[in-house]
Amino acid sequence: MAKYKLGDYEFETEQEYREAAADLKRIKGLTDKYDINNPQQAAKILEFIKGHPETFRSPYGRRFIHKLEASASRTQPSGFGQTGPAKGMQPQKPGQAGFTPGASSDGPGGANAASGPAAKRGRNKPVFGKAKAKASKSADGSKQAKFQIFTIRNFTIGVIIIACVIVFSIFAPKLFSLRSSGDGNGDIRRNMVTAYAKNQADLKEKLYTYYFNVVGESEEEAERDAQKGIGHYVLDLSDRTISSLPDSEVSDIYKELSEGGDIQNNSFVEPSEISVLKEKLLAAGLADKSGNGVEGETAVESAINSMMDYQERIFYSLCYGYALLEYSDEDSQEFALEDMKEMFGEVIYSYNMTEDEKRKYYDSFVKKGLIKDNQVVRFSTDPTAYNLPELTPVVEISIKGEKTKAYQSSMISYAPAASIFYEIHSGKESGYICFRNNGKNSKYISLDEETSVTVQGDFFLLTKSGLCTGEWFYNKQDIGILINGDSSSMISYVHDLSY
Fold it and tell me: What distance in Å separates the CA atoms of residue 450 and residue 45, rounded to the nearest whole number?
C-alpha cells in the first residue's frame, strides 16, 4: 500500500498528507509572526487554539501545541519582565550614591536622583503663593533662576493639558479611522478579505449545484451540505458585503484569518477539506474548467474517453503480439483481455455508457491511481518496472534437447506492463519471445535442496522449430524456463561491450 511521507511522518492516505501540509503552513505563519519561546505570546496562541480546536489536524500540529504548552508554562522571575531593570543593572544598596531611604524611585532624591553634592542637598520644599523667582549663584559662579513649582499659572496649564489629552483620546480613533482609507496596508487587507469572501461565495454556489443537480439532494439538503463545506474555512464570509464594512472590522477579520492560518504572508492557504471538495467539483465538471476533452464534456467524460482510447491502442498492440506467435484472432483477443484486466482492473468496451457507468469506471481508475488530476496515467515503457525482463541486445537460448544458440533481440511491445514481446534474429532465422506477468506467486520451483523460486508467468518462444510454451522464472543471472516440469532450459544475458 502506498504511503505518503512528509518530513518525519508517514501517512496512510492523501487526506492525512494534505492535513499535515496545511498544518506546517499554519505553524510557519505563526512562528513568523510570534516568538513562541516567549511565554506570554505562546499562551496567547494557545488561547486562540482552544477557541478553534480544528486549527491543527496532524501530528505536526499536536507537536506544535505541546511545544507551545511547554513554553507557556515557563514563568519569568518577578520584577524582570519587559518593564523590569535593564540587563546587568542591580538595585542600589543603602549607602551607595543616589539611594535615599523612604524616597520615591521617581521623585527627586529617589533611586533615579542624581548622585554627588546635589543628592546630599535633598529635596527642595515646594513654595506656595506668588513668590518671585530668585537668583542664586551656582558652583561656577553663574546665576540660575529659581522658580516656583506650584503656581496658579502652572496649575491652569496642567488642567488644559489633561483636558486636551482626554479630548484627543476620544476623537483621535474616529479621526484616524476616517483618514485610514489611504493606508496602503489597509487597502491590502481589504482586498485580501474581499477576495476571500468572493471565493467562498463562488464555491458555495458550485457546491449547492453539485449536491442538488449531481448528487440529487433536495434544496434544503443541498443548501445544508454547501454551508457545511464552507464551514471548513476559519470564517464564513460568503454572505458578507466587505465593501460596506469599516476598516477596523476588516482589520479584525484579516487578523483572525491570519491567526487561523487561512491567510499567511498575504497569500491564501486552502484547507485540505476544501481541496477535496474542489476535486469533486472538478470531476463533476463544475470547476472553472470543464476538463480536457471536447467542448461540453465534463471532466469525468473527458477522462473516461481518454482511458478508452488508451486501452484500445494497448489491446490491439497485445493482439498483434500474440498473432505473431501464430495464435488465432480469437485466442489472441482472449490473451489480450486477460492482460488488460491485469493492467487496468476494469476494461471499457463501449462508448455508449450512462453517466453512472462512467462515474463508476472513473472512481475505480482514480482509486487504482490510473487517473490523476483527470489525466490518464500511462504505463511505463520500462519492463523492469513491472518485474518483466529487459533482454540484452544479444541473448543465448538453451532449450533442453536443442543446441544453445545466440540471438539478437529487440523489444516490440507498445506498453510492457502485463506481457512483453521480443523479436529475435540469428542470421536469416527470426522468431519471437513473449513473457507474461500472470504467475500471481502461486507456484514455486525447487532448483536444489536449498533454493526455490517463484514462477513469474507464461512463456512463449517461436522459432523455426515451432512454438515452445512453458513458464518462466528468475534463476540467478539467467531466466529459467520450466517446460513439462523440467527447469533445465534457460535464456542467458550476453554482456558484450562491442555492441
Answer: 64
